[in-house]
Automatic annotation (TrEMBL), chains A, B:
Function: May play a role in DNA repair. It seems to be involved in an RecBC-independent recombinational process of DNA repair. It may act with RecF and RecO.
UniProt record similarity statement: Belongs to the RecR family.
PANTHER family in UniProt: RECOMBINATION PROTEIN RECR
SMART domains, A to Z: TOPRIM
Keywords on record: DNA damage, DNA recombination, DNA repair, Metal-binding, Zinc, Zinc-finger
Domain of life: Bacteria
Protein name: Recombination protein RecR
Pfam families the record matches: RecR_C, RecR_HhH, RecR_ZnF, Toprim_4
Amino acid sequence: MSSQYSPLIDELIEALRCLPGVGPKSAQRMSFQLLERNRSGGARLAKALEAAIDKVGHCRSCRTLTELDECLVCANPKRDRRTICVVESPADVLAFEQSGDYRGVYFVLMGHLSPIDGIGPAEIGIDLLVERVKALAVEELILATNPTVEGEATAYYISEQMRQLGVAVSRIAHGVPLGGELEYVDAGTLAHALKGRQRFE
Amino acid sequence: MSSQYSPLIDELIEALRCLPGVGPKSAQRMSFQLLERNRSGGARLAKALEAAIDKVGHCRSCRTLTELDECLVCANPKRDRRTICVVESPADVLAFEQSGDYRGVYFVLMGHLSPIDGIGPAEIGIDLLVERVKALAVEELILATNPTVEGEATAYYISEQMRQLGVAVSRIAHGVPLGGELEYVDAGTLAHALKGRQRFE
């Protein structure tokens, strides 16, 4: 596709395609936009990429992505350490943080159980989770893995482990999203919403 | 929006937003995707950005973006130097090159006439264009500026200049795009297509 335009611009277009959702046309548009109108933004992006790739690792307490030894949530003394919310990825942490309502801490699996791909309990850090639950005297573990087959299986596995430790385990509610219209909600979600109905008071 | 997640990741998310069409959510998704699954792609992108921003300038003959003194099209001895296609941006050059049909050379205005923004003939390189037309003994100048008010005004201005030099000037055809359905084509384009009709042979 990228005809022999200029080696450096061709390489920039090709490199931009590593971004999710960026096809050949958007990559072209991005390249020209940066080179024609926003070189300082491009330079800033190059620096930010280098710094993040070089320095970002995992939080030693919750496994999320961070360049610090312990992430800002885990290190915040105001967070409630007796509640742990278990999520699959760092983006989920960000989503909860942006909702602004949660005051506990997190544990990031960095994936979900998937025996076919060789991803077992060790790979998603169950040892560390068990250790943390014991160390922090956790009272409630909220399972917020994705509502997919793998996410549900992972949630089930973790709940079994926690039962042995005597920790209360809950699962976030699944149902009709706020602001959505019923007729556009898929059948599985509707069935779930019906099954999970609560008394109206 | 980007809550205090981690300074380096926050900065990466913010920096990605300089890309056209990338909002806060896509920037987040891109950041995590790169950090979790494609650090080598991210490193490659950082290098490509730095190299392109540092080295890419303008072709001395046609003003397009290139890191070379003269771009690959201008430097190609097989291209027909007696035909010049005038376009607004380097992306237009790429579009024509990908169509694969054009064998002449280009001249890139890097914009269009826009007196309100202080963009006059000097800013879009008319001097260099006139000089080139004389030096190459150009036979035909194809005006391929965008079919917008500014693009049309720019095309008109250039055609006036060329008339004084005795060069044949043409404008690319505007009409119904191939593969399009008539009912979805806007009124302006349809009117243009009707006015520009040609005898069916």
